[in-house]
C-alpha cells in the first residue's frame, strides 16, 4: 500500500502540474462563454413572410377548385346540373320544359321551371348568360323609319347608288355599317356601278335586302364602259370581261363559228363551261352588232 502513496519528486511535480491544469480549465470554463452569438430575429419580417406564404397557399387552393364560367341555363346537362348542386328532379323539370321547344329567359323563370331553392339560385344566377337580344334588346330607329316611312320610289325620286354615302345606305333595313362599307368598297374597286344588278356581287347581301335597297336607290349615273362586240371579239378581248377566262373565251368563239355568229346574247347560256349564274353581270360588257 505504501508504494501507492510514496512519490518521487518528479511524480509530485507532475501531480501538481495536473491539478493546476485542471483548476485552470475549470476557471476558464466558468469565466469564459463558449456559446455562439445568437442572431436576433426580425419578427415583423418573419410575420410578413408567413403571411405571404399563407396567401399563396390560399390562392393555390382557390385555383384548384372547379371553376364555373358564364353559361346559358337553357343548355344545362345532367352533369352540369349535378356539379351546380341541382337535384335530379330539378334537372328533369328543365329538360322537360326544353323538350317543348320553350326557353328560359330569366333567372326568375328558371326558378319557376326547376323549383330550385332561393339559396341555390343565388349561387347559380350570377353565372347565367342569356343572349344579348334577350338581356339588351335594341330597336334600330333606322329600321323603323325604313319600314314605316320609306315607300318604293320612282326613278326620279330614288338616290343615285353611285353617290350614296354609307350613312344613307344604312337607312335601309338590313344594311348596317359593315354592309354599307362593302357596297362602297365594291363601287370604288370597279370605278362605279354600271347597273343595279351588280349589287348581287356584294358579299352577304340577300335578295330581300337588295330588293329593299333598290326601292330607294338605283344607278342613275352608270360607269361608262366600252362594250365588246360579241361577234367580232378576240379571245384577248373576251378575257378582259369579268368571269370569262381563256377556256370560256375559246368555247365562245368556237360556238360563234359554228353558229355563224350570235343572234342573241342569251345564246351564251348554251356555251360549254359558261358561268350562267354570272350572265347578268357579263352582259354589261358585251353587245351585238347585227
From TrEMBL:
<dbReference type="InterPro" id="IPR051675">
    <property type="entry name" value="Endo/Exo/Phosphatase_dom_1"/>
</dbReference>
<keyword id="KW-0812">Transmembrane</keyword>
<keyword id="KW-1133">Transmembrane helix</keyword>
<protein>
    <recommendedName>
        <fullName>Competence protein ComEA</fullName>
    </recommendedName>
</protein>
<dbReference type="GO" id="GO:0015628">
    <property type="term" value="P:protein secretion by the type II secretion system"/>
</dbReference>
<dbReference type="GO" id="GO:0015627">
    <property type="term" value="C:type II protein secretion system complex"/>
</dbReference>
<dbReference type="Pfam" id="PF12836">
    <property type="entry name" value="HHH_3"/>
</dbReference>
<feature type="transmembrane region" description="Helical">
    <location>
        <begin position="12"/>
        <end position="32"/>
    </location>
</feature>
<keyword id="KW-0472">Membrane</keyword>
<dbReference type="InterPro" id="IPR010994">
    <property type="entry name" value="RuvA_2-like"/>
</dbReference>
Amino acid at each position: 500500500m505504501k508504494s501507492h502513496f510514496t512519490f518521487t519528486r518528479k511524480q509530485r511535480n507532475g501531480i501538481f502540474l495536473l491539478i493546476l491544469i485542471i483548476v485552470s480549465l475549470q476557471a476558464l470554463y466558468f469565466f469564459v462563454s463558449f456559446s455562439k452569438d445568437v442572431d436576433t430575429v426580425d419578427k415583423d419580417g418573419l410575420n410578413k413572410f408567413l403571411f405571404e406564404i399563407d396567401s399563396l397557399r390560399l390562392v393555390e387552393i382557390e385555383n384548384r377548385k372547379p371553376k364555373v364560367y358564364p353559361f346559358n341555363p337553357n343548355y344545362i346537362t345532367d352533369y352540369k346540373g349535378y356539379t351546380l348542386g341541382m337535384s335530379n328532379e330539378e334537372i328533369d323539370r328543365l329538360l322537360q320544359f326544353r323538350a317543348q321547344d320553350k326557353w328560359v329567359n330569366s333567372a326568375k323563370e328558371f326558378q319557376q321551371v326547376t323549383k330550385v331553392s332561393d339559396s341555390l339560385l343565388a349561387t347559380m344566377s350570377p353565372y347565367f348568360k342569356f343572349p344579348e337580344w334577350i338581356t339588351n334588346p335594341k330597336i334600330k330607329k333606322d329600321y323603323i323609319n325604313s319600314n314605316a316611312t320609306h315607300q318604293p320610289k320612282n326613278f326620279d325620286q330614288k338616290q343615285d347608288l353611285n353617290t350614296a354615302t354609307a350613312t344613307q345606305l344604312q337607312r335601309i333595313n338590313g344594311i348596317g355599317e359593315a354592309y354599307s362599307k362593302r357596297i362602297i368598297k365594291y363601287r370604288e374597286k370597279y370605278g362605279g356601278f354600271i347597273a343595279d344588278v351588280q349589287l348581287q356581287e356584294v358579299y352577304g347581301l340577300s335578295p330581300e335586302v337588295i330588293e329593299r335597297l333598290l326601292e330607294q336607290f338605283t344607278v342613275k349615273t352608270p360607269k361608262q364602259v366600252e362594250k365588246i362586240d360579241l361577234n367580232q371579239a378576240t379571245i384577248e378581248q373576251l378575257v378582259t370581261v369579268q368571269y370569262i377566262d381563256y377556256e370560256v373565251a375559246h368555247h365562245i368563239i368556237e360556238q360563234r363559228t359554228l353558229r355563224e355568229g350570235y343572234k342573241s346574247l342569251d345564246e351564251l347560256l348554251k356555251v360549254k363551261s359558261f358561268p350562267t349564274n354570272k350572265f347578268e353581270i357579263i352582259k354589261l360588257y358585251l353587245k351585238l352588232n347585227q
